[in-house]
Amino acid sequence: MTKQIDQADVAHIAKLARLSLSDQELREYEDTLSRILEVIEVMNSGDLSAYPPMDHPLETVNLLRDDAVQQGLDREVVLGMAPSSEEDYFRVPRILGAP
Amino acid sequence: MNDEILDWGIAELHRRLEAREVSTVEVIDAYQEQIEIQEPEIGAFLTLDLDAARSTATAQDTRRSRGETLGRMAGVPVALKDNLCTTAFPTTAASRILEGWIPPYNATVVDRLADQDGIVLGKTNLDEFAMGSSTENSAYKITKNPYDLERVPGGSSGGSAAAVASRMALVGLGSDTGGSIRQPAALTGIVGFKPTYGRVSRYGLLAFASSLDQIGPLTASVEDAALVAECIMGHDPRDATSLQEASPLLLGALTEGVRGIRVGIVTNLVEIASPSIQAALLRAADALAQAGALISEISIDELAFGLAAYYVVAPAEASSNLARYDGVRYGLREPGATVEEMMIATRTKGFGPEVKRRIMLGTYALSAGYYDAFYVTAQRVRSLVRSAFDRAYESVDLLLTPTSPTTAFRIGERSADPVEMYRSDICTIPSNLSGDPALSVPAGADPDGLPIGVQLLGPPRSEQLLFRGAYAVEEGLR
Amino acid sequence: MTQRATAGPAKGWEYVIGLEVHTELKTRSKLFCGCPNAFGEEPNTSICPVCLGLPGSLPVMNAQAVDFAIRVGLALNATVQRSQFHRKNYFYPDMPKDYQISQYDVPINANGYLELPSGRVIGIERAHLEEDTGKLVHRGGHGRIESAAYSLIDYNRSGVPLLEIVSAPDIRDPEEAKEYVTELRAILVAVGASDGRMEEGSLRVDANVSVRPIGEATFRTRVEIKNLNSLRSLVRALTFEGHRQVQLYENGEAMIQQTRFWDEERSLTGALRLKEEANDYRYFPEPDLPPVAPDVELIEERRTELPELPSARRGSIAMILPELSADLRETIIADACWPYFRSAVDAGITPARAAARCANELTALLPDIGVLAPERFVEVLAIEDRGDLGASQVKILLREAASDPTPVKELVTKLGFTARDEDAMKAMVEEVVIRFPDEWGRYLGGDEKVAGFLLGQVMRQHGRQISGAGARQALLALADEARSGAE
Ligand SMILES: [Mg+2]
Ligand SMILES: [Zn+2]
After folding, report:
1. What would the mean pLDDT of B9-15 be, rounded to a whole number?
2. Is some CB atom of chain A closer than 8 A to the CB atom of B71?
3. Which end of chain A, N or C, is less packed with Cβ atoms under 10 Å?
């Protein structure tokens, strides 16, 4: 199936991942990701249809907890970690672009 | 005296402490002296707090003098990989994005060690977010191999491995996603153990790849590894993927021997290793045979697919696990006019190149149109690896492989080529994909004096047998 | 499927509507952690490492949330199945992990349906568990997201358990959408899964709406309207949007698939000005949570425990009181009334009387009285059914029975409600009439307003011993006698 990744792909993924890449990084990632994908390509050399996807090494189900309230964190502690806060809230820049 | 203290394993240390031949404070002093000499050369730690360690030691001495019975880790100096949450130390995963972050809670393993009176000296260096095999990807420093300061200690738990190997700590904790405990243990000549997936709670471990990550010990001896493992294993209600059954007793099983145990040498993994490693592996096999094990050869060709699958699954999970580092709630924030610009600026500045590479790879593998070709296929390979192991364990009880195809490589030697670096993990990755327990035990050195490790693999939940095998190798090669 | 006259957005057009209803489940703690699932707490006080998505924290599933999900699934006639959690990946500041743990291709409940009071059946595609996000408060620009200077975040709501119930596109007009939400809410409340409070956000509706010429079989481009948080908004937004879409088609303009918001003040829907980015949620199985696989016994146990649901209640009423008006019927089948009606009918009380007492006295009483056990309600009605007490006495007795735990029989005596004795009553009224001759004269002269005064005096004199209706009866009788005597 060899899917060679191109710079447009790299740019698109960077956007999805909230990263910004310089032109040089774009080129570098295009190269290394392509090479990694070649390694990954090995997977497709055999017929795997007999093997169902294994999401997880554990086969357990239903590990549930009782619906009981437990002590959480103090607001002072939590907001103390925040890069920016105001009143009793975390603060972030505006969500949508300038009107 | 100090040198002698550093030689003691946990059992010996406890005998001396009980006999009042040494005080806990003297133990900490001995390690402090060693750290003062070694740490400037090695660079294993990101943070150290020896004053706190000494006051814990003082308190333990007082308790002991009152006749109290102390825990199983009493007086044991511990180094924690800096991806384990600690309220007493910053926890950074060696990333700029978490610089200075002090978690408001302890990882379950940290609490369990503290419950047993382990004494934490500090937090150790790692590849950023545990992504790497050399500890060169740390945002803060490069850790050196104690056997050759020009070489890497392996990774990603390279800091913990180097600390134990250079006797700056008696016990290290690391995390293993694709070999990150075993490979550095091999490269620094110590024991490294990755338990069956779910044996040790992951609560408080900064997630890299959740379905692969396991925490485990790095120690100088198999016996010490067994004791530490017993202290940290066991169900944790805060981790829904932790096994609910009682965990196996390891310490008592060590001397049960390996008579009649069938051990298969995995030939296709031996073939890719350097000649001196091949020779060391045969010596280890000999030691097992001497102890009564039945040695055979087996080729498990499917394991070759593991590397490919790993480099889909691990980055895919990582791309999601590392999304939360967005500058909103904790850690680094870079300015931006909108939330999106702020997030992009923060992540771009905060993550190093290897972390970005894996986030990119994982995002790609999960993205629309590629999910089936990459992620689903990789999960099929996991099934394939699982069934290949199952088939092997029909004819043998344990498998023997090199831990790493090479001994410690030079700093910078592979950092330019990620694919080459990824290949370092080819022998260790399959057990993470399958969730099986695995252990690396020292097996001599190459002609340059660089340590060699061999790896024992067993089926899920076979820790007892694995430790018996490892103990036999250790005894046989002594 | 029952036919129903629907109101299209314009002549020759019909609506195609599917609703996604998010309901907060009434658990004590959150979905994956022990923080309280509470409304109205101080900002950022019900949070812990898990619901704040701190590095290293892990989710553990709340058993009660699973239980509620199963009950709702069964009530919606869905298949309850082994389900897997997935991560839905996208960056948003109210979501602490920048992914939402939700269910994707294998939801816990699939393929159900809901029958509306009209008899129409609406398909339920799925009802799956997921976590809620934190809450954003926008500062500056009148608090609107699109014009705000910056935003604040409260993570108390983060991780609150949600059940997302997705209907098939079977709804055909805005009123039917309202009927659907009302019915769904009644079911959620009946099974105990939700308190159904839309005003507190415990029920939130997103609507997918398109229009098409009547007779066209395929679906046209749809628009998603987010956050319709009252029934009024739902109806108005759908109506507006239907007209807007017909207009676009009739003007030959392009319809684009988009997400819109409803502006209640300006009464219009508008496109959300989110940056252009194709949604690519990169779903994959949540590695931190084992699958939830409710065992067959548990499901069957929950099935037998299901309360009688609104549709079944309607069915019973149709059998017992076929002539009852739809309004009265809906009042009676409501959770507040139904246990009383059911017990009364089961005890052999005349159904029409049971219905009347439920719909009138009981609904009036319930908001301010304490707890009235259905058995006590039935006892009171049985006395009335036997003809032992008058209607006003019954009302008093009901109120007393709710606040005074004395057995009903003793309560009757305590209140002095002896059997109705017309002569005794007449004597009481006569006493008053004699004491107020002027008023009596005016009453006899046709001044009806004085009746109230006279009856009031009777009540003051004898208090609760008498029924108001009985006294009025006696007054009328006395007046008749007086008038006929005068002639
Ligand atoms: Mg949803
Ligand atoms: Zn919480």
Report:
1. 98
2. no
3. N
